[in-house]
Amino acid sequence: MSRPQEPQRPFFHFGNPFRSPKGSQLPPRLLSLLNAFEATLSERLQRLVPKDKNDILSLSWMKLAMESISEVHCDIKNLITELELPVTDWDEKWIDVYLDISVKLLDISIAFNSELTRLNQGHLLLQCVLHKLESNSSDQFLRACSSVDSWRQHVRSKNPRVETCRPILDKLVESLNLPKVKNSAKGKVLMRAMYGAKVVTTYICSVFAAAFSGSTRNLLDLSVPTTLPWAQVFSDVQTTVNTEIRNIFSCGEFTVLRELHAVDACSKKLYPFLQDGVGPAEGESFKNSVSGLKNTAEELSQGLDNLSKVVDGFFKIVLTGRDALLCNLRAGCAVPKSVTGRNIDVLQGESCM
Fold first, then answer.
1. I need a surface site. Which of 176, 278, 292, 320 has the fewest CB within 10 A?
2. pTM of the predicted structure, to 2 decimals
3. What does residue 112 show for φ and ψ, rounded to 5 degrees?
4. How far is CA 163 from CA 111, 203, 211, in A?
5. What keywords does the record list, in alphabetical order (predicted)?
6. What pLDDT, in 10s, does the model give residues 72-120?
7. How many CB atoms sit inside 10 A of residue 195's CB?
8. Contact 340/333 with Cβ under 8 angstroms?
């Protein structure tokens, strides 16, 4: 059971950072681009509002969430093209923001895929259990019992990579305070769109980190300006998902992953048969328990595979975007001092795609 946490502080302490000064209305074309981006962002968030609490946190919901932030990052890429704002015209601070965020997202994606791989490795132990149960030998039952114990221990163990997620999340939260944009209407549109992308990405990453770590310590409560058109639906998603996650952990459950919990429940039903044997009147119950374990184990393994592919896809989207930015900087000979210092290894190691 996780320790109670202090609520997250709002990130905007001095009013709405997007309030336009008098006389600084965006040109109609730029306003249309911004409105279209934020309307699409609202639609993507609406898809994440769970229809039923049992959707939280199913692997299918997590897959949809990761697909959604992948799409948001592609939307940002398209917006940059539509704004006709080449990287060589970017303010140095904008470049810093993009590079800092991208490297953190790459790190956290690696941590997530590491945990998905680790959890799926447990499927071999479950397959071993099911194989041993094809025999009526008491010796095989005892071995199956040992395999169940090993699986339980495996899925409850901690992954060191996931334990590093909190510092990454803290840095992502810090990045929500965007640099001021002066004398660039296109820059204002880009920064506001990037703010929306960063809020949604940071929050979804915190949900994944909480689910994989088995602790609400990694779960964020983000405050956004209520004037933003996507603020209400974001609040709906965050409130619904966070409430259910905290409720599950407060009951002492070791995981909020629905499919993993289902396999664990089936293993508990099967366990007495493995220890004590199957009595004359228990044959049907035993068969149902084995069938239940087989079905839920397959569903878990398939769900983990599917989610892993989507996380890997998000990693590639972030990496491609970062690589393209660095290539354009090289081509334009406009590499800022902050990049040549902190990211010199990246500049030397990444190639244009």
1. 320
2. 0.87
3. -65, -45
4. 9, 17, 12
5. Membrane, Transmembrane, Transmembrane helix
6. 999 999 999 999 887 777 888 888 888 889 999 999 999 999 999 999 9
7. 20
8. no
Distance CA 184, CA 316 (A): 30
* Cis ω before 57 (30° cut-off from 0): yes
Contacts of 26 by beta carbon, 8 Å cutoff, 6+ apart: 20, 34, 185, 188, 189
Residue length of the chain:
353
Query: What contacts 74, CB < 8 A, 6 or more positions away?
Result: 317
**HSE value, Cβ hemisphere, 13 Å, CA-based, for 347:** 17
* Neighbour count for residue 336 (Cβ, 10 Å): 17
Q: How far apart are CA 109 and CA 188, in angstroms?
A: 28
Structure tokens at 23: 């006389």
Least confident of 52-56, 105-109, 120-124: 52-56
pLDDT tens-place string over residues 182-219: 778 998 999 999 999 999 999 999 999 999 999 999 99
Neighbours of 275 (CB within 10 A): 11
Q: How many CB atoms lie within 10 A of CB 199?
A: 26
Name the region of 202 (left: φ>0; alpha: ψ -120 to 50; beta: rest).
alpha
The answer to whether the beta carbons of residues 41 and 230 sit under 8 Å apart is yes
Please say whether the beta carbons of 218 and 169 come within 8 A.
yes
Token digits of residue 270? 């099967």
What Rg, from alpha-carbon coordinates, does the chain have?
Answer: 24
Element (H, E) at 32: helix 28-46
Residue with tokens 């071993």: 128
Q: Which amino acid does the sequence have at 45? A: L
